[in-house]
Amino acid sequence: MLAKLTDLGPQNEMSGMHYTSVIDLCAKGARNLAKGPIALIFAEDEVELGTTVRHHISLGFSSVIIFLPATFTLPADVSETVIRVDHDVAANGHIDAINRIIGAASPATWLYYCFNAEYLFFPFCETRSVGELLAFHTEERRDAMLTYVVDIYAGDLHMHPDAVSLKDAWLDKSGYYALARPDPENKNHPKDRQFDFFGGLRWRYEEHIPSRRRNIDRIALFRTKSGLKLRPDHVFSDEEYNTYACPWHNNLTASIVSFRTAKALKRNPGSTFDIHTFKWHNSVPFEWHSRQLLDLGLMEPGQWF
Questions:
Q1: Section 267-276 average pLDDT
Q2: Running DSSP on this structure, what letter comes out for residue 241?
Q3: Mean pLDDT of all residues in the chain?
Q4: What are phi and psi of 56, to 5 degrees?
Q5: 3-class DSSP assignment, residue 5
Q6: Which residues contact 139 (CB under 8 A, 6 or more apart)?
Q7: 146: closest CA among 87, 193, 209?
Q8: From CA 103, how far away is CA 271, in angstroms rounded?
Q9: How many whole angstroms separate alpha carbon 123 and alpha carbon 145?
C-alpha cells in the first residue's frame, strides 16, 4: 500500500478545478457533488498533502476535493488531479463546510472526510475499491460506516521532529477499549449500538488531550440526506448514522491511520518537551496493509468476504 502513495491512478474530467470558497463550490460546483463516493480532505497544514491525495485517489474515489488556504502549495501532479477549494481549516474548521456540502450534494451520495496526513484503510483495500466497499454496505441497508482513527507516529523523533515519517511509521498494537455511550436524554442509559472508543496516543497522553477529543471513533463515510448535520464530536444528527452495526449482525468498519495526534502533541508547547519518543513496549511498525489492521481488531469485515 505504501507504493500506492505515488500512484495517482485515473483522473476524472473535473480534476484541476478551483473554487474560491466552500460557498462557491456549493453554488457553482453541483456536478462535482453529483456522483460519489467523494473524498473531502481538509488540510490543516502542508504536511504530506501529496501522499494523502494520492492514497485516496488510488482507493477509487470518484473525485477528491481538498480544502486548504490559498497560500498552500500542492505538488504539480496532485494539483491537476484534485478539485481545490480555498478554505482556512485552522480558522474555520470543517464542520460547517461538510454540512454545507451535505445540503448541496445529490441525495444519497456517499461522502468521506479526513485531514491531511491521514490515510483510509478498509478490509481488502489492496484488491477492492472504495466503490465496491460502499456498494456492499448499501446492500446491507447501511447509510454510514464507523471508522477508527488509529494513531501512527515516527519511531525516531530526532530524525523526524514533527513525528511524521511514512517509512518509519509505528502504531500501538494494543490498549484499545470501548465504553457504552450514555444518552443524556434518557437518564444516561446506554445508547443502542453506540460506543465511545479509546486508545492510541490520545489514551496514553490523555493529560494533554481535552476529554471531548479523546475518543478515536469517527463516522467518516456516510450518505447524504435532507436535514442531516455533522456535529462537532464527529457524530451525526441522525442517531442511526452513529451506530457501529445494524441490529441483526456486525457490519463493515474501516480505519483511518493518522499522524494528526502525533503532530499536535509535538507542536504543542505544553506537551512537546515531555515526549522524547512515542514508542513503548506495545509499539509495532505499521505495515501499510489492511491485513495488519484486521489482525489487530482495528476494523471489521462483517459479512464481506
A1: 94
A2: G
A3: 94
A4: -75, -30
A5: helix
A6: none
A7: 193
A8: 39
A9: 13
Helix ranges, the chain (H): 22-28, 49-58, 76-79, 89-92, 95-104, 130-139, 200-204, 260-267, 290-295
What H or E segment, with its residue span, contains residue 217? strand 217-223
What percentage of the chain has pLDDT greater than the value 90? 85
φ and ψ of 185, to 5 deg: -90, 0
Determine the Cα–Cα distance for residues 215 and 212; give it in Å rounded to an integer. 7
The DSSP result for 34-100, as a single string, is: SSS-EEEEE-SSSTTHHHHHHHHHHTT-SEEEEEE-TT----HHHHTTSEEEE--HHHH-SHHHHHH
* Per-residue b or e along 282-305, where b marks 16 or more CB atoms closer than 10 Å to that residue's CB: eeeebebebebbbebebbbebebe
The helix/strand/coil state of 242 is helix
Per-residue cell: 251: 457490519
Residue holding cell 468498519? Answer: 253
What type of residue sits at position 64? V
Tens digit of pLDDT for each residue in 203-255? 999 999 988 889 999 999 999 999 999 998 889 999 999 999 999 889 999 99
Quick check: 89 and 44 in contact, CB under 8 A?
yes
The span from the CA of 114 to the CA of 61, in Å, is 13
Judge contact between 189 and 195, C-beta under 8 A.
Answer: no
3-state class of 300 per DSSP?
coil
Measured between alpha carbons, how far is 82 from 76 in angstroms, rounded to an integer? 11
How many Å apart are CA 193 and CA 244, to the nearest integer?
A: 6
Whether the Cβ atoms of residue 234 and residue 212 lie closer than 8 Å to each other: no
- What is the per-residue pLDDT for 96? 96
Which residue in this structure is represented by grid cell 490559498?
70
217 - beta bridge partners? 148
Beta strands 83-86; 18-19: pairing state: parallel
Provide CB contacts within 8 A for 61, sequence distance 6+. 37, 38, 39, 112, 130
**Interacting residues of 140 by C-beta distance below 8 A, sequence separation 6+:** 246, 251, 252, 302, 303
**Cα angle at 3 between 255 and 51, to 5 degrees?**
65
